[in-house]
Amino acid sequence: MSEAGKPFIKRQIIGIARRLMRTALTITSPTVFLRLVNEQLPAPTLRPRLLGGGLDEFADSLTRIAREEKLPFADIPALAMASPEGFLKVMSEQLDKPVLRPALAAGGLERLRLAQNNIALQEDLAFAHLQDCYSQEGEDLFLHRLLVDQPEGFYVDVGALHPVRFSNTYLLYKKGWSGVNIDATPGAMEKFNRLRPRDINVECMIASDTTPQTYFQFGEPALNTMSEEMARKREMQGFPVIAKTVLHPRPLSAILEANMPANKAIDVMSVDVEGLDLAVLESNDWQRFRPRIIIAELLETRLADVAKSDIHAFLAARGYVMASKLFNSAVFISRDPGAGVS
């Protein structure tokens, strides 16, 4: 190969590596991860460069994980395979077996991600410095900064919807925390039970008024709401309601009374129920269940108008001050340093 062609080849390899790393940093399914890796493998002229070190390290990390987890494909001679596609095909076929997924979900995939991240760090690739962030507006990064010295804690996530996507608490879960996740969407807790087994996962609508209410569902689940006014507004914006379900609400205080571990402090409470956050907060028993930090949604509220909002007034009356304002949410911290103990 001519000297003039080497920079082009290097750019191609770095580009491929960047796509692979971004996939590895964000995907939780080993099967999907390997399928995407297979799709991003370079043209035949570039394969020798990967086989010269990159793919070997990738294969080695997979093989080590397989041996540690005592998976049956651990002794497949992956490193001796000449074809990257062949190696990945075998791995994909094996990982697609449901019986093997829990072993990787228990830590194997995270070790794979870290192994690939270390390779990128050694190569000084910029994307290796990406931060984990799962919330919609960076709320989890704010919490991580605020709670960086607290390795363990307890959260309550109301309107949790999904264990990972748009989650304000998943980063804390990965850090070692646990808590109570609550969502009204029928069937939502199946994924929580699978992906966040340390948590207490409750499928329930939260409101002070326990009269049966209609729950509106959209093609984009993040828009689901029990507010008819909000549902109509979404439809006017071009998001049709795809299902209506009559649910029986319960107060937040009742859910916490039934599910909170004894004498457990609530460090963080996240509330995101599409327009009815105040109703959720009003249904809590603030003498018994007082979070130290609260994330509440303030839709279409400018920073200058936060102090005029009902949620700000409600929380200020209970001794909370706003610590941060994001686009559609705000973070409040209790003035009482002993807050959180039920």
What key phrases describe this protein's structure?
342 residues; alpha/beta; Rossmann fold; 2 domains; seven-stranded mixed beta sheet; two-stranded antiparallel sheet
Structure description:
- 41% of the residues lie in helices and 14% in strands.
- The protein has 342 residues and is an alpha/beta fold.
- It folds into two domains: 3-129, no CATH class; 139-334, Rossmann fold (3-Layer(aba) Sandwich), CATH 3.40.50.
- The strands form two sheets. Strands 3-2-1-6-7-9-8 form a seven-stranded mixed beta sheet, with helices on both faces.
- Helix 1 (6-26) packs antiparallel against helix 2, helix 2 (30-40) packs antiparallel against helix 4 (84-95) and helix 3 crosses helix 5.
- The protein is globular and about 70 Å long.
- Residues 25-30 and 77-82 have low confidence and may be disordered.
- Write the H/E string, N to C: HHHHHHEHEHEEHEHEHEHEE
Beta-strand segment tally: 9
Strand order, biggest sheet?
A: 3-2-1-6-7-9-8
What is the CATH top level name of the largest domain?
Alpha Beta
The name of the CATH architecture of the largest domain is 3-Layer(aba) Sandwich
Helicity range: 40-55%
How far apart, in Å, are the first and last alpha carbons? 69 Å
What class, by secondary structure content? alpha/beta
- Which blocks of ≥5 consecutive residues have pLDDT under 50? 25-30, 77-82
The biggest beta sheet reads: 7 strands, mixed
Rg estimate, integer Å: 24 Å
Instruction: Report strand %.
Output: 5-15%
Shape: globular
| Rounded average pLDDT | 78
Q: How many independent structural domains? A: 2
CATH topology of the largest domain: Rossmann fold
Say what oligomer this is.
single chain
By CATH's scheme, which homologous superfamily of the largest domain applies?
A: Vaccinia Virus protein VP39
Number of helices, where a helix is a run of at least 4 consecutive DSSP H or I residues: 12
